[in-house]
Design goal:
Number of helices: 7
Order of helices and strands: HHEHHEEHHH
Structural class: mainly alpha
Helix content: 55-70%
Oligomer: single chain
Largest sheet: 3 strands, antiparallel
Number of strands: 3
Distance between the termini: 71 Å
Keywords: DNA-binding, Transcription, Transcription regulation
Mean pLDDT: 87
Shape: rod-shaped
Strand content: 5-15%
InterPro entries: ArsR-like_HTH, HTH_ArsR_DNA-bd_dom, HTH_MetalResp_TranReg, WH-like_DNA-bd_sf, WH_DNA-bd_sf
Radius of gyration: 32 Å
Low-confidence stretches: none
Protein name: Winged helix-turn-helix transcriptional regulator
């Protein structure tokens, strides 16, 4: 399970935001969500597997805390994306082909003009 898979679900992101305010039990977290307690437990398991949470047993309760170091891959990705000034886009057609097309257009125009000057009657009929 990757951190990105852990963050992919909106409910899991909300749980992380709740835990940013401090450690909470699974029951406390479930009380803030419309989903069932078993569903919240599954979300918490995914977040643990993604390395975003730590859990400790306190009596009968499991206490979850945010593990900020688990977000390192996200930070690295964002840093890399922010470092890009502007994406360099290659033209859809290689530049050398555009040069050849330009040469062909110029040749065609030149030939057309030569043909029109040889046959002035064609110019007046168009």
């Amino acid at each position: 399970m990757t951190v990105f898979e852990g963050l992919a679900d909106e409910t899991r992101r909300r749980l992380l935001v709740e835990l940013a305010d401090g450690a909470r039990s699974a029951g406390d977290l479930a009380a803030t969500e419309a989903a069932s307690r078993p569903a919240i437990s599954r979300h918490l398991k995914v977040l643990r597997q993604a390395g975003l949470l730590e859990v400790r047993q306190h009596g009968r309760h499991r206490i979850y805390t945010l593990r900020p170091a688990g977000l390192a891959p996200v930070r690295e990705l964002l840093d890399r994306l922010e470092a890009v000034d502007e994406p360099t886009l290659a033209p859809p057609v290689p530049e050398r082909r555009l040069a050849a097309l330009d040469l062909e257009v110029r040749r065609t125009v030149r030939e057309r003009r030569a043909a029109e000057s040889d046959h002035p009657s064609q110019r007046s009929s168009s």
